[in-house]
Amino acid sequence: xxxxxxxxxxxxxxxxxxxxxxxxxxxxxxxxxxxxxxxxxxxxxxxxxxxxxxxxxxxxxxxxxxxxxxxxxxxxxxxxxxxxxxxxxxxxxxxxxxxxxxxxxxxxxxxxxxxxxxxxxxxxxxxxxxxxxxxxxxxxxxxxxxxxxxxxxxxxxxxxxxxxxxxxxxxxxxxxxxxxxxxxxxxxxxxxxxxxxxxxxxxxxxxxxxxxxxxxxxxxxxxxxxxxxxxxxxxxxxxxxxxxxxxxxxxxxxxxxxxxxxxxxxxxxxxxxxxxxxxxxxxxxxxxxx
Length: 290
Known about the structure:
Layout: H1 6-17, H2 20-27, H3 31-45, E1 50-53, E2 56-59, H4 61-85, E3 93-99, H5 101-118, E4 122-128, H6 134-140, E5 145-149, E6 158-172, H7 180-186, E7 190-191, H8 198-205, E8 217-218, H9 222-230, E9 236-239, H10 240-248, E10 252-254, E11 260-269, H11 277-287
């Protein structure tokens, strides 16, 4: 049972699925039926809620605002139905947490797992991304919680600062006896994509960027990038937390123990009038200092 109007249910389905076709399957309507409900809602509000793109339906700024209302309403729905009926609500709660692969694997997933064990009706989607905008996923409603650079957190978001990510310079353990100057001159950098500047930023901090090769190797997957490092196909920066087990097992080594680069990160979410218990537990667990 849902307390949302049919039009808002259709709106929520399109947000969740990204296309009218998949939304229609979710709410057991025809595509025409979903489209009609969205148009009716837009007419009532006097705004456009979606724009069409090659990637599907994208929320407008007005649509993003309505989405935050729907998210809060759905959060309160279970508790409200429980109080009305006098029975414990049996519905499940869903939340998506988005962040970079290193942060998600070393901190977010382990800490969120503790909350999931205490809340058997909580279902979590861990969205691991190194190339897409976490802020964009919060705005579109794809994610409800995001771990992102602190300087990207806008005034419209609630947030808590996390311990900074410390990046270190790493390479295959076979290079242990080589000098850093030799490695920079003769080996390429491995980054996620051309827009990834973390390794260069670290080198610039210590005025070493001019010694590095210009052409880089790329792997937009942390496991593939780590494998390339282990195989001696180049060097890169990894967070200290993520690199630790590889350094411990001897497959990677620090190329310069005194070089590091700290990035400020934060946990962010859109404000809620009343934060559901499971959501509050997630925020507290993910921001707890260890």
